[in-house]
Q: What sequence folds into this?
């Protein structure tokens, strides 16, 4: 199930002129995270206040989510990996850590029951079999989960 994305990137507070919006610089919006601070295109620099947004997001049969990033890189995360990587307040407290451990060690398969875009910076998932759904997975977190 593909999820629609409202924006191509998110700018955190600051005073920098956007350059990476799709179509605005002739590159189809592929220069996410680069900003123009005056001068020529050669003066572009990476600005860490920009969060790269995937071009497409697809939940595949409840088993995994695939994110395609600008430039063609694809991140695929299993439902199990996402459930284990949840950083919400519930999962960080002792009872929540114990509940997560029980779900991860249980015999029931972990599945993505629902996925939603949160604002223009994250995804939220509801998992089976436990119904957990309070975690918000920023696009940066999803990239980090892929690297570990």
A:
């Amino acid at each position: 199930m593909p999820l629609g994305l409202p924006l191509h990137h998110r700018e955190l507070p600051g005073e920098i002129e956007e350059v990476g919006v799709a179509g605005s610089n002739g590159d189809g919006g592929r220069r996410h995270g680069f900003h123009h601070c005056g001068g020529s295109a050669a003066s572009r620099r990476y600005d860490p206040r920009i969060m790269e947004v995937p071009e497409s997001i697809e939940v595949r049969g409840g088993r995994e989510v695939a994110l395609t990033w600008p430039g063609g890189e694809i991140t695929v995360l299993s439902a199990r990996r996402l459930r284990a990587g949840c950083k919400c307040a519930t999962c960080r407290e002792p009872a929540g850590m114990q509940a997560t451990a029980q779900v991860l060690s249980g015999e029931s398969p972990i599945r993505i029951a629902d996925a939603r875009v949160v604002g223009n910076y994250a995804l939220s998932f509801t998992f089976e079999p436990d119904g957990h759904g309070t975690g918000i997975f920023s696009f940066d977190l999803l990239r980090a989960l892929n690297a570990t």
Notes: The two ends are 25 Å apart (CA to CA).
